[in-house]
Amino acid sequence: MLALQVARKAGILGLLSDLKFLCSQCLSGSSDGTIRLWSLGQQRCIATYRVHDEGVWALQVNDAFTHVYSGGRDRKIYCTDLRNPDIRVLICEEKAPVLKMELDRSADPPPAIWVATTKSTVNKWTLKGIHNFRASGDYDNDCTNPITPLCTQPDQVIKGGASIIQCHILNDKRHILTKDTNNNVAYWDVLKACKVEDLGKVDFEDEIKKRFKMVYVPNWFSVDLKTGMLTITLDESDCFAAWVSAKDAGFSSPDGSDPKLNLGGLLLQALLEYWPRTHVNPMDEEENEVNHVNGEQENRVQKGNGYFQVPPHTPVIFGEAGGRTLFSMTAGVREQMASPEVPAHRTASELLCRDSGGETESMLLNETVPQWVIDITVDDKFLEVELLDQRVCPTPK
């Protein structure tokens, strides 16, 4: 792209946040708070507008390319006259950094602008009368003087879902308490990848104390809140560190025994139970070979972990330790919890978790799922972990 080549020559490519084009000209917003006008023919910057105090993350221009609307990290949205940079008006000030804007182009000049921020709501701000600000003198030509926004309240608000902003992993290393932007507290089960209970607007610290258990379980997952949802990451280094008895985990065995269960292994088996490669064939090998010769289909049984299932819309992401996403099994409904991110080593694409039994999706999984996950979900090979004897041995004299 010519505009990027121009920016690269100027040495500011790393600063670019947004680009807007019109034939031979281009506008760019940058992280230093400036807006630059580029000539694509001359391959150079022909004007610089110093509008914001912090990074410019979003730009919009009118059809005539005479006014630019800008927003960014400082939460302020300005309209600047490109023909006279000293003339600008503060349209409004959002409650969070601006990520994206879209002009209402149903009329000329635009009657409104839609704004998305780091919060989950989308606001519509009126622009009526904004292009008369030059005549009225209600504009700012001095960056040091604060001015009153043209609008103090949006005309319309599209509310989004609340984002999780705080979490605490309980010491059973299975349940998590979260608090969202509406101050609602929720109780989650990581093992079953679901929300257990909405606790409402209760004291977060009190709930942590109330649900404390005198038990020690090693860490076997990590938590991230960058998406506004719980994202659980399983890593080969500690995924299989937590062993608990079936009774302590709330599961019962048909034979009445109380086996030791590996939490990470159970979750992996539940996440990939729709994948045909994890299914078992109850017939013996000789009968299976005869059926193949006769052209008969195998009777394969969905295996899972034998104790529980995760919601079928649970999203799964395979990625590298550095954070690059290699494979994403996402769901159409993301209401509950973003499920584990599992480090892998190859590239693939995206599918629904419950659709992993499809032919194409199954082939993608065959190429992407790392061997350490296959060992557990397909071959039932748990790592040789030495379980500590819980008995108290007398100290020799």
From TrEMBL:
GO terms for molecular function: ubiquitin binding. The keyword Ribosomal protein does not apply. It comes from Hipposideros armiger (Great Himalayan leaf-nosed bat). InterPro entries: WD40/YVTN_repeat-like_dom_sf, WD40_repeat_dom_sf, WD40_rpt, WDR48. Keywords: WD repeat. This is WD repeat-containing protein 48. Gene3D superfamilies: YVTN repeat-like/Quinoprotein amine dehydrogenase (2.130.10.10). The gene is WDR48. Pfam families: WD40. It comes from the Eukaryota.
